[in-house]
Amino acid sequence: MKVKIENLTKKYGEKSALREVNLDVPDGNFMVILGPSGSGKTTLLRILAGLLYPTEGEIFFNDINITRKPANKRNVAMVFQNYPLFPHMTVLENLRFPLESQRDGKIFKRRINSDKVIQKKVKETMELLHIEEHSQKYPSQLSGGEQQRTAIGRELIRDPVLFLFDEPLSNIDARLRYEMRSWIRRLHSVIKKTMIYVTHDQSEASSLGDLIVLLNEGVIVQIGSPEELYKNPVSKFVAQFIGNYPMNFLPFTTKKGKVLLNEKEISVPKNITTIIKEKKIENGDFGFRAESIREFNPKKPKEKDMLCLDCTVEYSEKILDQQILTLKFDDRKIFYVTKTKKMFKENDLVTILLHFENIHIFNESGEKVT
């Protein structure tokens, strides 16, 4: 099912939790909504589920306007951060409950699903989720991952048109979180239902999403694949939020057509000086990833179009085969990731090289210009 959101705004008094959000979710897509705390992620999800109504704007499921439809009329599954399982029921009973509670008639006395249908659906769901061996266990006897799979199964068994996940892996440890991410991705490939997943963890978003919607202060900042957001951020906010390490920034100024770094003129490729001149940037930032830096080797000739910076080591951290260095260039900190076997210590002098092909240019407003 495709989802369309048009000019969605949600206000609490004078405060706007969401502001003019426009979004298209293709049928069968796995979309991740990413953003810091307070950006409006959960509010958007709750509006889609029908738990909240928007102040302005409309929502369409397959071109049908459902903006004012109550939650029980939308057939949407929502998986929460805390597992909403009945503690007095076994896994089997928790899975049966949604089907047994589906009734119709004027006073809802007639059960929609027969015992045979319920038994068949429960068996299929447990096999799909690999929880058959836990059917007679109570939630308190399950691990975090088993509880989460049971909670997902209880939503899945209803055959909803849309799945909404509200940070479902926040309460489990790192290793299990990795396994559950893979499991949810495989589940999506099997059932092929539209899924919208909310998280504040950018590595989780990158591993799961076909598309990532990055929210900040209730506004969509950028939409794209994980690779697009990493390689082509539209602003400094995106560049800092996406990636294992925040993007490094060096402020520059321009004077009489020359580019200055710490009041010293630097050599910049002609195409970049042309862009800076055309965009009339007087104060801006060079942005570059920690992974794009390399150490200067005096035995090798310096290539063209390289920025050379003399830094000192402020802090060094070794993680497996990588060293993560915090360098100091004048009063600026620079993160540098390297796999060199050479060990660094505090106050060591390091000369780093940056190829201008790997440098992004941001204007004074923080918008990327190239």
Offer a quick outline of the entry.
This protein has 370 residues and is of the alpha+beta class. Helices cover 25% and strands 34% of the residues.
Q: How would you describe this protein?
A:
This protein is an alpha+beta fold and 370 residues long. It folds into 2 domains: 3-241, P-loop containing nucleotide triphosphate hydrolases (Rossmann fold, 3-Layer(aba) Sandwich); 248-362, Beta Barrel (OB fold (Dihydrolipoamide Acetyltransferase, E2P)). It has helices at 41-49, 91-100, 115-129, 144-156, 174-191, 202-208, 226-231, 236-241, 270-278; strands at 3-12, 15-25, 30-34, 56-61, 64-65, 76-79, 103-104, 110-111, 162-166, 194-199, 211-216, 219-224, 248-255, 258-261, 264-265, 283-288, 294-295, 306-319, 322-329, 332-338, 349-355, 360-362. It has a 6-stranded mixed sheet, with helices on both faces. Strand 7 and strand 8 (110-111) form a beta hairpin. Helix 2 packs parallel to helix 4. The protein is elongated. The two termini are 36 Å apart.
